[in-house]
Design a protein that fits this description.
The protein is an alpha+beta fold and 71 residues long. It has one domain. 27% of the residues lie in helices and 17% in strands. It has 2 helices and 2 strands. Strands 1-2 form a two-stranded antiparallel sheet. The radius of gyration is 21 Å and the shape is elongated. It starts with a helix and ends with a helix.
Length: 71
């Protein structure tokens, strides 16, 4: 027989799991730390050269082969 405490604890844990929010951080330039959006850029598997719109420096964004299925 379960105790009242176990019922309340299980109910609390279920609600807590339902309310779990996964936070996604924006992509940032490794040089100037400004946000960079990849929505307009079609990233391909492998190395992608990116030019930061803020500082105009170039950097490489590496995308795994299974990016299209997971991302």
């Amino acid at each position: 027989m379960t105790t009242f405490y176990e019922i309340i604890k299980n109910d609390f844990m279920k609600k807590r799991l339902e309310e779990l929010v996964v936070q996604e951080f924006p992509y940032r330039c490794p040089y100037c730390d400004q946000e960079v959006s990849y929505e307009k850029i079609r990233l391909k598997a492998g190395e992608n050269m990116i030019v930061c719109p803020s500082c105009k420096k170039k950097y490489i964004k590496v995308v795994l082969d299974d990016w299209e299925t997971k991302g």
